């Protein structure tokens, strides 16, 4: 995985700092935060290990820089997705198609942070869920979205779904006729996913009411209040 194709550049002319950060993103996402090796990162970035220490201080400083970069990108995308009249979705598709590898790499990085429960994981989750919750509440208020009984839980679920799609395992991609996740797989999944969001799945609320009744029946009795 080449660092030159990642990050904030449309060409190979990246600063040394950006090259290091982008190479680190790939290693952290692929190998995990503990196993990633600074020598391997420096080799992929085409710089010396000493330059990593010069720019980032240590491995933890490099990790923080990657966290901040990914969080900024993911928060911006969440805000873009919430723009009205589908404009945001068009912009996100264009951004994804301009560099699918980078887009997916950042999703893998965030998924790795959450999976390993790193210090950044709670920041990622809090920021992304809060941003999505704001979008859902605003949509319910202006009539573009149906109100939810639990907007925060819905926001967490939406983040889970988007992460699952962008980090789709190879067996599921192969089931759809492709060796790995890419633009063709995303194109295949987008419309059915939006059909589900827009029209729903069931034709009546029988299952919803049954689930609500089951959870209510399973709830421990509440003590009487005097």
Total number of β-strand segments? 0
Identify low-pLDDT runs.
Answer: 1-13
Cα end-to-end separation: 65 Å
Q: What structural class do you assign from the helix and strand content?
A: mainly alpha
How much of the sequence is in beta strands?
A: under 5%
Main sheet attributes: strand count, strand direction, barrel closure: none
Listing every helix as H and every strand as E from the N terminus to the C terminus, the arrangement reads: HHHHHHHHHHH
What level of helicity do the residues show? over 70%
Mean residue pLDDT: 83
Provide the gyration radius in Å: 21 Å
Inertia-based shape: globular
| Number of alpha- plus pi-helical segments | 11
Essential attributes:
226 residues; mainly alpha; 11 helices; DNA-binding; TetR_C_25; Tet_transcr_reg_TetR-rel_C_sf
Structural notes for this entry:
With 226 residues, the protein is mainly α. It is 71% helix and 0% strand. It has eleven helices and no strands. The protein has helices at 16-31, 38-45, 49-56, 59-81, 87-98, 100-116, 119-142, 151-166, 170-175, 183-199, 206-218. Helix 6 (100-116) packs across helix 7 (119-142). The chain is globular and about 65 Å long. Mean pLDDT is 83; it is low at 1-13.
Question: What topology does this entry show?
Answer:
Layout lengths: L15 H16 L6 H8 L3 H8 L2 H23 L5 H12 L1 H17 L2 H24 L8 H16 L3 H6 L7 H17 L6 H13 L8
């Amino acid at each position: 995985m080449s660092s030159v194709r990642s990050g904030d550049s449309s060409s190979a002319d990246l600063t040394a700092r950006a090259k290091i950060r982008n190479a680190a993103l790939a290693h952290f996402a692929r190998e995990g935060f503990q196993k990633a090796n600074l020598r391997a990162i420096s080799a992929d970035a085409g710089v010396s290990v000493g330059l990593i220490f010069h720019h980032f201080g240590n491995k933890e400083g490099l990790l923080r820089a990657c966290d901040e970069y990914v969080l900024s990108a993911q928060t911006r995308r969440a805000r873009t997705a919430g723009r009205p009249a589908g404009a945001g979705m068009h912009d996100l598709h264009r951004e994804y198609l301009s560099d699918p590898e980078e887009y997916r790499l950042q999703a893998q990085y965030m998924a790795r942070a959450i999976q390993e429960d790193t210090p950044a994981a709670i920041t990622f989750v809090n920021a992304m869920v809060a941003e999505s919750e704001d979008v859902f509440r605003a949509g319910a208020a202006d009539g573009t979205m149906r109100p939810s009984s639990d907007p925060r839980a819905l926001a967490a679920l939406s983040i889970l779904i988007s992460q699952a799609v962008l980090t789709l395992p190879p067996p599921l991609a192969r089931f759809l006729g492709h060796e790995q996740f890419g633009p063709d797989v995303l194109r295949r999944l987008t419309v059915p996913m939006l059909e589900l969001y827009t029209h729903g799945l069931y034709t009546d609320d029988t299952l919803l009411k049954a689930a609500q009744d089951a959870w209510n029946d399973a709830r421990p009795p509440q003590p009487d209040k005097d």
